[in-house]
Structure formats: structure tokens, C-alpha cells
Amino acid sequence: MNPLIHAEFDLDGYRFGPGHPVYLSRVDTPGIAWRDQDIVNPVGANVFFGRDYADPKPWGLDFTITGTTPAEAAENYFKLANAWAAQHIRDTPGEELPLDFNMHGTARRIYGRPRELKPDDATDLFVLETIKAKATFQPSSAEMFDGTTREHKMTMTPGAAGGIIFPVIFPISTTQGGTRQGIITDGGGLTPTHDVQVEIHGPVGKGHVTGPGWEFGLTNNLPYDRAITLDARRQTILWDNGSSAAGLITPGTRLDDITIPPGRSEITFKGADQSGTSTVTVTWRPTITSL
Fold first, then answer.
1. What residues are paired with 108 via a beta bridge?
2. Neighbouring-strand partners of residue 180
3. If we measure between CA atoms, which residue out of 181, 92, 100, 191 comes closest to residue 147?
4. Which domain of life is it from (predicted)?
């Protein structure tokens, strides 16, 4: 699919904006609402500040829907309504859609769910070639991400061979674990991003990945034809067939800690792999800002 142009949007494959019969005439990005735990001093002046939480407000979108005839304009509205309904995610708690858009030549992304959509006047669907409608989109977080992913991939370095050291601990191995280190020269963005996926692909025994202030470790061996992916933003750890692998992670793995910061950072991959073919792939979207 062609890259988005300025002011063009993509909702799960449905596009609107310049060059489309559906485009935006207004966008309202109201920013965030701070939910605080402030306490007013009950016996004196001043306020004690507690934790603050950023709650994203819904975006407001005003649509203009066009057609060469009233029938065509109505059909274009119904296509928008079908995309906005997003029926395939409504029954799944936590499921969301990416809303991608281009702003001045730069791709951006937010995650969330489409909410209200209604025409300004339903009578227009019967008589006009131009229809106005209003909609809302609820972001799941206050973060806006880069529309383009970045990736850092490393292949394991085989461990050195060695002799048997007594007392023997079974199972016996005469190969030391391998280690591979890599540098992310620029993570991008303005703040550390949680939109991070870490994939370990076998064959590797007890694969272990560390990043800036976090770790992702497996307690079991991973076969040559299998992979496990941690998704920090979605809070999932899945096998390559989509089933949960959450029971295989080390106690030190904390999904909330896994981020890629702006600038330079280091990734380390360790584990037992005599073949030197196992890999770790870190994929992320830099965090731009919130609107």
C-alpha cells in the first residue's frame, strides 16, 4: 500500500483524507486529563501532591463525505460507518486499532478504538452529494508514536568449547553459553517508548535478553523452529502460534520496565546455542509526544 500523504489517515486499512471521497474538515485533539491523588492539608494550608495519571481525551473528527450523486455519497458514508464500527474487535477486551496518519510528511500513529459516528443531518443521506458527519476516536494512551518501526537484530555467537568440571552437574555440557552485544545508536523519539516487541528465535537454551534497565529471560530451551515474542505495550508474551508463553519467563522479566529510550542504548543476548543461529529481534516505535 502506498505511503500516506499529508493529512491522510488510515484506520485498519480504511483510508480517508486528500484524494478520497471522505476527508476531514476538522480535527480536535484535546490532549490529556490529569487524574491526581492530591490531598489538601486537613489541618493547615497547602496541598500534598500524590501520583498523577495521564488519561487521554477522545479525539473529535469532523468528516466531509462526497459523491457525484446522493446515492454515491450515501454509499461512501456507509463504507466509513462500516470501518468505524470495527466489529471484529468489539468482543475482545483490550483489543484496539492503530490510527495512522501523516503530518507534514512524517508518519504518526495512535492506538485506540473508534467511538461515536453520526451524520449532522440524516436527511442529507437521501438528498445531497455532500454529507457532514462527526465522530470520536478514543486513544488508549496519551502517547503518539512514530508511524515507522525500527529494528535491531542480533545472531548468537556460539559459546567456547571446554572440558568437564567436577563435581558433575547433569545434564552435562562442554560448551559455554554464548553472548552477543549490540548498540542501538539512536532509539529516536522524545521519551522512552513502551511500544516494543522482543522476539527470541531458537535454537537456544534459556535465552536471556537485557536492555536499558530491563531483562527478558526464558526458563526453558527454545527449539530451532520456534519463537517467543514479548510485546511490552500490549502486555503479552506469546509463542509464534499465538498461544501464551507467560509461564516460561524468568522472575526478573517485568513488562512495564521494557522500553527503548531516545539516543544510544545497549542490547545483550545470552544463551546456550552451539549452532550460532538463534536470534533476538527488538522492534519498536519511537514515542513522539501526546496531543
1. 101, 146
2. 269
3. 100
4. Bacteria
Spacing of C-alpha 180 from chain mean position: 26
Q: Cell 497547602: give the residue.
A: 46
Structural domain boundaries in the chain: 9-142, 150-289
| Set of cell numbers at residue 75 | 454509499
Which whole-number Å values give the CA distances from 34 to 38, 143, 173, in the listed order? 11, 14, 55
> Can you tell me the distance from the alpha carbon of 24 to that of 166, in angstroms, rounded to the nearest whole number?
73
CATH of 9-142, picked from 2.60.40.10, 1.10.1060.10, 3.10.290.10, 2.40.30.200, is: 2.40.30.200
> What are the pLDDT digits (tens) for 1-43?
799 999 999 999 999 999 999 999 999 998 899 999 999 999 9
Q: Which residues of the chain have pLDDT under 70?
A: 159-177, 290-291
CA distance 136 to 217: 40
